[in-house]
Every structure is written in C-alpha cells, then in structure tokens.
Design brief:
Blueprint lengths: L10 E6 L3 H11 L5 E6 L7 H5 L6 H4 L1 H9 L4 E4 L10 H7 L2 E4 L5 E2 L12 E3 H8 L16 E5 L3 H11 L2 H4 L6 H8 L5 E5 L11 H7 L5 E4 L9 H8 L4 H16 L6 E6 L2 E7 L6 E10 L6 E12 L2 E4 L3 E2 L17 E2 L2 E4 L2 E8 L2 H4 L7 H15 L12 H10 L7 H15 L12 H9 L2
Parallel strand pairs: 1-2, 1-4, 2-3, 4-18, 6-14, 7-8, 7-14, 8-10, 9-10
Antiparallel strand pairs: 5-15, 11-12, 12-13, 16-17, 17-18
Helix pairs in contact: 1-4, 1-14, 16-17
The protein binds NADP nicotinamide-adenine-dinucleotide phosphate.
NADP nicotinamide-adenine-dinucleotide phosphate binds next to helix 7.
Length: 459
C-alpha cells in the first residue's frame, strides 16, 4: 500500500476532543494538501470544549471562536463522533486499529489541589465546578453552591479567578441576556454575596491576570475593587521585574492595582478585596467551611523567579464559600502514558512518548500537551506544530488502508452508544438558539445529555 495521504490510501486521523486545539489540529490536517479524513471524537454531544463550557457567559466576543470552528467543521472530509468517551466507549487500541494517527486534544479537565486540611469540607469547591455549572456543563448540572454566604473567597489570581469573580459580582440584570445556564441564573438571583476576597500567594507584580480582565474588575457597575495601598509597596526584586520589557503585562497590572488602591471604596453594594502575599494553610469548620487560615508570605529569589515562603504569621478570614482557582490539570486515558506530576501526556514535538521512546501514531495538542497556559489562540500554533510532526511521520505510519469511523460504528452500536454526528449537533444547536430567543439570550443550552439526545431522537 502507498504511504497514507493519497487517493488510494487516505490518511485517517482521529482527533480526541472537540475544543480549540482539536479544531485547530483538524484545520491544519484538512488544509495540508494531503488526502485526509478527520473524525473528531468528543465525550459530550456538544462540541467546542472550553469555549462553550469554560469561557464566561459575559464574554461573548471570546465565544466567537465557535464561528471559526463551525467553518472548520464544514470542511470536506470532517465528521464528528460526539457522545463517545475514549477509554470507556472505545479503547485507544481500537482507535489505533482504525486510524493512521490519533491526536489527543482533550484539554485539562480537572483542577490542581491545594493539599491543605479542610480542602474537601462542604462549601469548598474548585473553580472548574462553578465555571462548568454556570456554563451548563452536563457533568455539573446537579451541583449547588451556597450563595446565601455573604463572604466568598477565591484562591488564585489568574483569569479563571477573574471570571468567577465577575459572575459573583454582577447583578442578574447584567447576566440575563448572556448564554448563562438558566438554573445558575435562578440561583444567582437569590445570591447574598457581598464580599469577594481574591487571594494571591505572591505580590501584585506576579498576579496572572491579563490587563483587560483585571481592568474590567474595577469597572463593574455594582461592585468596588479594593486594594490596600500598603500592598503596593513592592520589594526591590518585584520592581526590577516591572522594568523588564517582556514583562509588560505585569507592569500594566501593577498600574491598574495602583489605580484601585488610589480610588478606594465608592459605596457599591458588592466589593472585591485583593489580597497579596497570603497562602491558605487550612480551611476550618465543623459541618462545612467557616474560616480560612491564611499564612503571610515573603518573596524569595531573583527577579522573575521569586517564590512565596511562609513567614510564620497567620490570620483568619471568615467565609462560608470558597473556590480554588489555582490552575487546571489533565486527566489520564487508559492506554496513553501520563505524566501525573505535570498533568499532561508526555510528548516530544507533539509525539506521545513512553520512557523516552515515541509511540508511533499517537500525538497530543493543546493543554494536554503543554499544560494549562495561554489564551484560546495560543492553541492554534501548538496544534499546527503537532500536525507538522504527524505529516513528517507519514512514511513511518501504518501503510495499510484504515476504516476510520466506519470501523468504529459497529463497536459503538454493539455497546449501545448513540454517537452524535455533525448534522445531529446542528439540530441541537438550532434548538438551543430557538430556546434562547424569547428570553433575549443567544441560546438556552441543554444542560443534560438526555435532553440533547431527546432533541434528536424524541425519547
Ligand atoms: P493561571 O493563570 O495559571 O493562575 C493560577 C493562579 O493560581 C496564579 O495566581 C497562581 O499563583 C495561583 N496558584 C497556583 N498554585 C497555588 C497554590 N498552591 N496556592 C496558592 N495559589 C496558587 O490559571 P487559570 O486562572 O486557571 O487560567 C488558565 C489559563 O487560561 C491561563 O492561561 C489564562 O490566561 C487562561 N484563561 C484566559 C481567559 C481569558 O482570556 N479571558 C479566561 C480564563 C482563563 P503563582 O503565580 O504564584 O503560581
């Protein structure tokens, strides 16, 4: 047989995961000039991963990436196999038998842990849970959060913390015409949250917010952003960091924090308090969380490599609801090597490796390859690089013709898995948009898998 990629032997690739990196990988393959067929396998009936279930509902511009992915999905030789979980409904070996190459673009599905006592007390949640809940993710549909709490803590100072902060800080009127899930909007309508404390273990100069996201927290109509002016006295190493040209985002962040400190409270009903140089060391409570123990930190190390070290001083912060927003982590899939320390699939140039040796035909792209960093667009170059490796490997991939989705369908039927095709998804999509229209929302998402399948099969 010919090297895959010809009319006689089309290159068949399975892309696992229908988020940004999966779509960018599919696009790079379908526009490579090779004769390629791409099947995208996604565990939910709905595609678009974190753009649908992670991007905050009040940031509709970021969700416009979906328009780009919808164009990619309509390219010839692309298909979707939604509602199919690799590792459960299909084994990785079954994918390898039916495709020349498999690209894992399955993201980072879980959160990192703080590893402190009381972390699992009721009332202590991961940011992922809350984000997925307000975005209507079916896995989180039944979660509930005690929004009768007046004081909420968010641990971490990255953009996910900023998203959680805004959703808690905004009024229902500010959210009701977004695509926020109805059940969350109803719960937020009864929210009694007044104070949101956002905890950073390092100083204002090391906060991970991007400028736009931080600035927005100071411009909320019904919430003040509060910074203690004393916290703006930075150490010499942090001041040196701000002079580094490539560190311009942090320099601008410090400028924004200084403006919050100079303005002080203006009497709005809700308030965000930024804390710096503090680390949670324990969460206390009986039946549920009542207090957070915070250790005061100092910074050690040279500029750009400063780490937080506890100084021995602690303080208590009363709170009844807490979100840990300290970064995501990938989860393993049976049959694929996993680096548990970094929460990624180990790779070299996008090729999955085990014990330093490349596993022919297995690749990774996006967060499961490089870890949870960067904005949506960062994944494009990442996926293109992985596809470049795959295309360079063509002479070494299995030379025989592969069946692709046709080879998987009998397996899925025997296992009673209702795969959702691209046409099926378009029906679900249209139904969601129609449900949103009377409410002035871009869509009202189905928040249960059964509801999505009912929309297709009627039962
Ligand atoms: P992130 O940007 O990596 O921020 C994580 C935060 O948690 C940092 O402040 C980090 O502090 C802190 N942290 C980590 N371990 C900690 C510990 N043990 N104790 C206390 N604090 C700890 O992660 P993220 O917010 O989850 O965002 C992930 C990626 O998605 C980022 O690239 C982000 O920009 C992107 N994103 C973008 C948008 C947007 O564009 N609007 C929205 C959401 C997410 P240290 O710096 O000290 O480690």
């Amino acid at each position: 047989m010919d090297t895959p990629g010809t009319a006689a032997n089309p290159l068949r690739v399975a892309v696992v995961g229908a988020g940004p990196s999966g779509f960018y990988a599919a696009e790079a393959l379908l526009k490579s000039g090779q004769n390629v067929r791409v099947d995208m396998i996604e565990r939910l009936p709905a595609p678009f991963g974190l753009v649908r279930y992670g991007v905050a509902p009040d940031h509709p511009k970021l969700k416009e990436a979906i328009l780009v992915y919808s164009v990619i999905a309509r390219l010839p030789h692309f298909d979707l196999l939604g509602n199919v979980t690799v590792g459960r409904d299909l084994k990785v070996d079954e994918l390898r038998a039916n495709y020349h190459g498999v690209i894992f673009a399955c993201g980072a599905e879980t959160d990192r842990h703080l590893g402190i006592p009381g972390e699992d007390l009721p009332g202590s949640h991961t940011a992922t849970e809350f984000v997925a809940w307000y975005n209507g993710h079916p896995d989180y549909r039944e979660r509930s959060f005690d929004l009768s709490a007046e004081v909420v803590v968010i641990v971490g100072q990255g953009n996910v913390a900023a998203d959680v902060c805004r959703v808690l800080a905004k009024s229902v009127d500010e959210l009701k015409t977004t695509d926020i899930a109805e059940h969350s909007l109803n719960a937020l309508a009864a929210s009694r949250v007044r104070e949101i404390h956002v905890i950073g273990r390092r100083s204002a100069a090391q906060a991970k917010f991007t400028n736009k996201e931080l600035k927005e927290l100071g411009e909320l109509p019904s919430c003040d952003a509060i910074v203690d002016p004393q916290d703006m006295q930075l150490n010499a190493e942090s001041l040196a960091e701000l002079e580094i040209k490539s560190n311009y985002v942090s320099a601008k962040n410090v400028e924004i924090f200084r403006s919050f400190a100079a303005r002080g409270p203006t009497g709005k009903p809700r308030r965000i308090f930024f804390h710096f140089l503090e680390s949670p060391v324990a969460i206390k409570g009986n039946a549920r969380i009542e207090q957070l123990v915070l250790a005061r930190n100092r910074l050690e190390g040279v500029p750009m490599q400063q780490v937080a070290r506890e100084s021995g001083e602690t303080k208590l912060l009363r709170c009844a609801l807490l979100f840990r927003s300290i970064g995501y982590s990938g989860v393993p899939i049976p049959g694929v090597p996993f680096d548990a320390r970094r929460g990624v699939f180990p790779t070299q140039d996008g090729r999955i490796v085990e014990g330093g040796a490349v596993i022919t035909g297995l690749y990774a792209a996006g967060w499961i390859k490089r870890g949870p960093t960067g904005i949506i667009g960062t994944n494009r170059a990442d996926s293109i690089a992985t596809v470049k490796s795959l295309l360079a490997d063509l002479p070494h991939l299995a030379p025989e013709a592969k069946a692709g989705a046709e080879g998987l369908k009998p397996l899925l039927m025997a296992r009673r898995v209702r795969a959702v095709s691209l046409d099926d998804w378009l029906k679900i999509d249209a139904a969601e948009v129609a449900r949103g229209q009377p409410k002035g929302k871009p869509r009202e998402k189905f928040t249960r898998v059964a509801e999505m399948l009912k929309c297709l099969d009627g039962s």
